[in-house]
């Protein structure tokens, strides 16, 4: 029954397997001091160079399965021991304890990461690498945003609720600093999501909820416009069409600068395209090595409609996949590139297929949870931010394209309206 599914997901979501230490913000602050630079002069040039493939979008995970997103979650620190999240976390927790902390080094922290952009309709510049804040607390979200901005990542992909509130906190502090004469920070590309309508909601009510949520989120963020709003699917085509019309309204009224969808399978896309006046700029879905470039034909379908692929889950979802992290092929390829780790190779593959990607800060995540705990959070973000500073050879791309495992359903986190949607493990 749906309701109990919601509850168990929320509880798991709440189950962070360890308690992050109290806000280690020192590193972030000093980085920000040093890195005022920012907007990458050669960004446009890189866009031309990198942006030739189309692809598209989607969203994140886990428990946005419930349609209620994270804002109903109870205290995530009231952890549930022995949850799946715990098992997934174990290796990373060990590496945190081992603490290969980064050495503060001004030269090394100078931000030279030029993240290329896509030019969407209305000349909206969308950075092709985003920070995925899924499952982070409000404080961790704020910290992860700081760390990401220090590394040149300004595209923030967040959920309504506590992540949104962490972004709001970052924005408020940034505004304060600027008013006090501080240097201005790069403008964020704010990318957020419409919650799923609870099962059984009528199209009219779903539209009203969507309208209300947009206003609520903008008020919480204290902004008059976001850069991207993404819609989740529904088993009910009328609901998706009515919600999409509300996103189009928001686009026209300037509340958002672009609109897209999350975890939309071909059937869901076909539904909204029947009535859409504006097509989704992107579809945000799972893509990682082992799935091939065109899982279930979704990408070629998107491409045929001019919908780009925005990918999450480069390391697997809902937890990092050991088959990727320990892959002999990824390890071998990484060695040939100045000892890149399999996780860096996995992300580079996604980007080099022409998709944009949204990344969790580190490998510390599991079903319904994420973490931004130093030093892993800053180290992980710094590594991910360098994804455009190197590339795989055609031969290596071909070898990675040919991997058939671990395979996954790109819209695993859709509703029952799409094939083989996620079911909670017993
Ligand atoms: C919201 O933003 C405005 C300026 O855009 C600012 O003056 C105001 O203080 C902000 N409100 C809050 C609650 O941060």
Automatic annotation (TrEMBL):
SUPFAM superfamilies: NAD(P)-linked oxidoreductase. Residues 1-17 form the signal peptide. Keywords: Signal. Pfam families: Aldo_ket_red. InterPro entries: AKR, NAD(P)_OxRdtase_dom_sf, NADP_OxRdtase_dom. GO terms for molecular function: oxidoreductase activity. Residues 136-359 form the NADP-dependent oxidoreductase domain. This is NADP-dependent oxidoreductase domain-containing protein. It comes from Cylindrotheca closterium.
């Amino acid at each position: 029954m749906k309701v109990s599914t919601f509850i168990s997901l929320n509880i798991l979501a709440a189950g962070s397997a360890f308690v992050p230490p109290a806000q280690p913000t020192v590193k972030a602050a000093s980085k920000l001091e040093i890195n005022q630079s920012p907007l990458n002069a050669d960004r446009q040039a890189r866009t031309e160079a990198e942006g030739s493939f189309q692809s598209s979008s989607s969203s994140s995970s886990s428990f946005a399965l419930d349609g209620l997103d994270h804002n109903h979650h109870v205290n995530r620190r009231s952890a549930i021991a022995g949850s799946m999240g715990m098992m997934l976390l174990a290796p990373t927790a060990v590496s945190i304890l081992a603490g290969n902390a980064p050495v503060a080094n001004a030269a090394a922290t100078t931000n030279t990461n030029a993240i290329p952009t896509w030019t969407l309709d209305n000349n909206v510049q969308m950075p092709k690498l985003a920070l995925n804040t899924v499952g982070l607390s409000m404080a961790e979200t704020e910290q992860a945003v700081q760390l990401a901005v220090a590394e040149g990542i300004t595209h923030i992909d967040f959920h309504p609720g506590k992540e949104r509130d962490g972004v709001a906190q970052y924005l408020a502090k940034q505004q304060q600093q600027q008013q006090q004469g501080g240097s201005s920070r790069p403008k964020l590309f704010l990318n957020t999501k419409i919650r799923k309508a609870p099962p059984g909601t009528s199209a009219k009510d779903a539209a009203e909820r969507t309208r209300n949520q947009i206003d609520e989120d903008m008020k919480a963020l204290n902004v008059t416009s976001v850069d991207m709003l993404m819609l989740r699917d529904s088993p009910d085509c009328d609901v998706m069409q009515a919600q999409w019309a509300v996103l189009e309204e928001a686009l026209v009224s300037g509340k958002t600068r672009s609109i897209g969808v999350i975890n939309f399978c071909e059937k869901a896309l076909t539904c909204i395209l029947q009535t859409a006046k504006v097509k989704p700029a992107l579809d945000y879905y799972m893509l990682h090595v082992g799935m091939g470039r065109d899982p279930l034909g979704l990408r070629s379908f998107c491409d045929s409609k001019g919908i780009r692929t925005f990918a999450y889950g480069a390391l697997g979802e809902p937890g990092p996949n050991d088959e990727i992290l320990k892959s002999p092929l990824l390890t071998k390829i990484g060695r040939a590139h100045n000892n890149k780790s399999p996780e860096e190779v996995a992300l580079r593959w996604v980007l080099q297929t022409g998709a944009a990607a949204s990344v969790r800060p580190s490998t510390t995540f599991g079903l319904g949870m994420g973490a931004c705990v130093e030093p892993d959070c800053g180290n992980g973000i710094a590594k991910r931010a360098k994804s455009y500073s190197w590339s795989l050879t055609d031969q290596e791309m071909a070898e990675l394209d040919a991997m058939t495992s671990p395979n996954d359903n790109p819209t695993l986190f859709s509703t029952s309206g799409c094939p083989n949607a996620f079911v909670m493990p017993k």
